[in-house]
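User: My collaborator sent over this chain with a note saying "see what the structure looks like." That's all I know about it. Can you take a look?
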Amino acid sequence: MNNNSVETQKNGRRRFLGTAALLGAALLTPRSLWAFIAKKQRYKIAVVDLMILKRQKLGAFQLTKDIGADGVEVDMGGLGNRETFDSQLSKPEIRRQFIDKANELGLKICSLAMTGFYAQSFATRPTYERMLQDCIDTMTAMNVKVAFLPLGIQGDLAKNPELRPVIVERLKAAGRMAQKSGVVIGIETSLDAKGEVQLLKDIGSEAIRIYFNFSNPLKAGRDLHEELRILGKKRICQIHCTNEDGVWLENDPKIDMKKVKQTLDKMGWEGWLVIERSRDQKDPRNVKWNFGANTAYLKKVFQG
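Assistant: Without extra context I'll predict from the sequence alone. Here is the result:
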């Protein structure tokens, strides 16, 4: 046997032993191996800091970890009569604490939420551009790619169609602002899927998409799966994987979550499923009990 053949065999043996060592290390460190697998998950599960009673509080991250979720949607704070959100995240040192805590616990901030617009009017607030820009600036500083913007009660386009022109114009402005910063604003409306498709066409910005909420078509008696299919994967940036309070998701007769997964799989959609409600009426303020159960169920269905 010549020297080249001997050297080739040695190199092959080294590669084999190296590979075996890596596999052995992975087997000996299940936490690291699971972290690697989790990164490859098509669906990730998050909770809402507001709904786990930790609105813009650092403790939301440890509680999220205890619940078992992969990430958290962080709220921008209340609006009231202010010119912008009551947000501590405008302070660099507070943002750094949030980022460091998320990294320490292996969690992601999946989105920032402008839930102040649930009760406030996006159509009439004079300083809406400042509010949007403050949220976008915070997203950029924290490397968060999605914001949640509910049009809310006062911006209900089904009940107040006369607001449509001004809301469309404001969302066009929001789209320009978001696109400039490379982020997406996900809106929640009361329209059906066909109405939302038309609304997005009127807005004409890829930076404005739908933040889908399962409870909206369910409350209106519409077909949840058909609504998802009509919107398609590219128009849905994120999903509030929830229904009204009363029972946990696994006990909710209105949602067949395995069928939902099949629908999303066929659409080719992937992303964050964010638990907002679906708390059991027996003890709705028991955060760990309710959100822990819903998280475990969604992980079983969507992450196997």
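A starting point for your reply to your collaborator: The chain is about 45% helix and 15% strand.
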